[in-house]
Amino acid sequence: MRLYRTLAAAVTLCLAVAISSCGGDDPAAPEPNPTPTGPLVFDDFQPAAVIIGQPNGTASATGLSAATLNQPTGDLAAGGLYVCDFGNNRVLGFNATPTADGAGANFVVGQADFMSNTSGVSASRFSPFDVRSSGGKLFVVDYVNNRVLIWNTMPGGDVPANIVIGQADFADDTARLTQSGLDTPVRVQVAGGKMFVLDYNNHRCLIWNSVPSTNNAPADVVVGQMDFVSRDVQRDAYTPNFPTSMWTDGTRLLIGDFWRRILVWNTIPTSNYQPADFVIGAPDLDSVGNVNAWGLASDGTNLYVAETDGSRVLIYRPIPTANGALPSGVLGQSDLAHFTRNDDNQDGIVDATPSGRTFGYPTSVTIIGRKLYVTDQGNNRVMVFNSR
Predict the structure, then answer these.
(1) Quick one: DSSP state of residue 115?
(2) Which of its termini does the chain have fewer beta carbons within 10 Å around, N or C?
(3) CA–CA gap between residue 76 and residue 194 (Å, rounded)
(4) pTM
(5) Do residues 365 and 304 lie in contact, with contact meaning Cβ atoms separated by under 8 Å?
(6) Is 277 left (phi over 0), alpha (psi -120 to 50) or beta?
(7) Residue 63 in contact with residue 100, Cβ under 8 Å?
(8) Three-class SS string for 164-220?
(9) pLDDT, tens digit, for every residue of 196-245?
């Protein structure tokens, strides 16, 4: 069963998932211009320029090699390019974004080589759901083991993490509802000097006012709950119900949840239980919406939403500022009236194979430089779109 369906059906997340590296232990060279210099521009139903994890646009098989993926899930990290390969319990590392379909990774983090995919709980074994980079550090969400791993320098191979958040040590995987504990985290992001973690089963977002430098550091602020030991669910401005996606620029905070909406805080919360200011995808903050947001990204002007069950990426131009905003563009479909996965001819029937412009349950969107990366989990690939 595909990951997003498992998450949607379960009250708790508990998936069981089960040559040498081309790179050494040196971190990959950072790519230039990691931040867009202006709004990105895409056409509806635009084809991807490059596909990672598959040899061409019509392939979708799982695999275990330097060039294949098995249910990739999360955002991507710059500093080279780090791809979250959840089904293979690893992060694939590229020295730069590939320029051709099916390119092999240069190194692997989380496994001894490209042909291993052993799960585990240690400083170097994990089940990654999301990966991010900031300030020369790498952050990996290990949702199976209820923790976030931090490397103080960008790893260029199978090296252990330096810091673990959510656990007292690298051997523990216990789920907790505390100021420092986590229960099935799904997203991490660093912006404005703060670290944000979506804590899925605890219906909250934890904020650290600075990136932790010690194991099990307690969070400073909780979004979605009155305190650090509550786990209440309400359909209102306060609480994200099983939060699935997040984006922040250090000024604003956006969180998507299972009420099919995106909560927006115009300023980063500095105290517990601060209400959202408005909502995207629903008429008001007390209503169920119509946008199943599994991934969020912005170029600072526009908002990009990976709508998993619509197998498309919605584009809001510009980022909404009030309730009721509608998207104005789309990738993965020819227009906003279509939502069938892998439907290149747009007849509402799933095609036998994907194409270079369709999706099968996308779970994340990431912007690095002038490129939009879409994690197409159902087709076991990452699609790279160039802004025109």
Answers:
(1) T
(2) N
(3) 19
(4) 0.92
(5) yes
(6) alpha
(7) no
(8) EECCCCCCCCCCCCCCCCCCCEEEEEEECCEEEEEEHHHCEEEEECCCCCCCCCCCC
(9) 999 999 999 999 999 999 999 999 999 999 999 999 998 999 999 999 99
